Amino acid sequence: MTIRSTRRAFLRSGAAAVPVLAFSPSANAWLSCSDAAADAIAIPDLDGELLTDPADRAAAADDWGHIVSETPLAVLVPASIDDIRKAVKFCRQHCIKVGPMSMVGNSHSTQGQSQARCGLVIDMSGLSEIHAINPGDAVVDAGVRWFELLQQTLPLGKSPPVLTDHIDLSIGGTLSVGGIGGQTPQHGLQADNVLELWVVTADGDLEVCSPTSKATLFNSVRGGLGQFGIIVKARVKLIAVKPLARHYTAVYADVATLLADQVALMNEGRFDYVEGLGFPQPDDSYVLTIECVKYFDEGAPPDDAAMLAGLNFIPGTEAADTQPLYDFFDRLAPIVAFTKITGEWYLPHPLTDFFLPLSEAADFIESTLAVTPAIDIGYGPVLIYPFPRSKVTAPFIPLPNEPVSVLFSLLRWAPSADPAVAADLVAKNREVYEGVREVGGKRYSIGSVELDFGDWILHYGARWPQFLARKLIFDPKNTLTPGQGIFPW
Ligand SMILES: Cc1cc2nc3c(=O)[nH]c(=O)nc-3n(C[C@H](O)[C@H](O)[C@H](O)COP(=O)(O)OP(=O)(O)OC[C@H]3O[C@@H](n4cnc5c(N)ncnc54)[C@H](O)[C@@H]3O)c2cc1C
Fold this sequence. Notes:
With 489 residues, this protein is α+β, with helices and mostly antiparallel strands. The chain has three domains: 3-126, Uridine Diphospho-n-acetylenolpyruvylglucosamine Reductase, domain 2 (2-Layer Sandwich); 129-241, Uridine Diphospho-n-acetylenolpyruvylglucosamine Reductase, domain 3 (2-Layer Sandwich); 244-449, Vanillyl-alcohol Oxidase, Chain A, domain 3 (3-Layer(aba) Sandwich). It contains 14 helices and 23 strands. It has an eight-stranded antiparallel β-sheet with strand order 19-16-18-17-21-22-20-23. A six-stranded antiparallel β-sheet has the order 1-9-10-14-12-13. The longest helix is centred in the C-terminal third of the chain and has 20 residues, at 419-438. Mean pLDDT is 93; it is low at 1-15.
């Protein structure tokens, strides 16, 4: 089955594109037919487009953080994998940095991770085809967004095992960072549920890799922060799901009790989804809420009393409702729509996420929230939920050295567009990060924390020599994904 998305996301400027014909190393610029340069090198023929208009370059210098802005020389909107191969080969030859970016609504990174100063941004939304939906997997272009895949699979009773809270994220983007959600306690990360990857290497070659074929490349690229190759297509796992979601919430008195119940539920597998949220209050306290979901068939709802039995929430705070499964997966859509109207969607988002060791998590979270006023979270919320280390197989996603990790996310929405406010919140993230390291935690590599080279070495810890060795094998000229700032030269 071949399903073509109707979305094409180029020509954001609205202006007619001027064909780019050449690159001038001396001018460090892409040239159109009206430009002249003695050292002009013709660019290869492309199926898609190379955009050099200032508005297109400005769009590629922005992300959901609105904190960092690095302008590329050009934006490639590929119409084929071959376009990416040719562009990467060309850039490697001329030492131009290449940053893959999910450009729809700008990238959802918040600290310039997909930007490429004076380089080439590849707008992965140009590759947006769902190639096949099979009984146990789907083959999709990297620019397909998770909600687009779900719209095709849910009518067939199938879903990817793990979904992020926001499903308007690109498949290539979340496979590159990890992809965590309320199904992670049972199924691991999205990067643990990919079966095969098509990767354009830093040489511009196309490789197909999996756990059994070219496994070194496969294990480098999933969760590899774009450092080892560009994911252009993926075979992602699908599992059978039921069409309805019974959705439970209840309030907890403290983080330790919340975590203890979440861990018990995780071990028991009672629910299909378990998360925890902290909602900041006007008095700077947090309402701690568990959120659990059981999928079910029409006419066979779960027994609410049995589902909540033995949990230690504050009596009387429990609530339950039923939703179509797609509506539950797309539950952030109304918030996105509302905050686009209020303008908050467009303010800086200096968010940060960490993985804490379970033994330290309750104390660390309580003490961090005690010094985090509501204004520092804004729309928020805070996320708190555990998952087992054993489910995470992607080697370059460092976790604490304990069997259970706890996701702790400060999903900050800045109260204004003032860059000084965002800078202050990014500095606060750094303070929290240093505390996280002291208790043996790790950063989830999305969001806004300023890191130097030494921080990245500490981040990968015992895995650093392997990470470096793979970089030297797969991207020795350090062309790929400069916006992560791991190799800043
Ligand atoms: C509202 C909101 C909710 C979110 N909820 C969750 C959540 O529940 N769980 C979670 O895990 N994350 C969540 N995220 C974070 C999200 O996973 C990251 O922002 C991630 O970067 C994916 O976004 P993207 O598809 O826009 O990728 P981008 O931000 O464009 O890319 C992420 C990184 O991967 C690189 N990259 C992108 N595409 C490719 C590719 N094809 N090949 C190689 N490298 C590539 C980029 O250069 C960049 O370094 C959320 C983000 C937002 C804004």
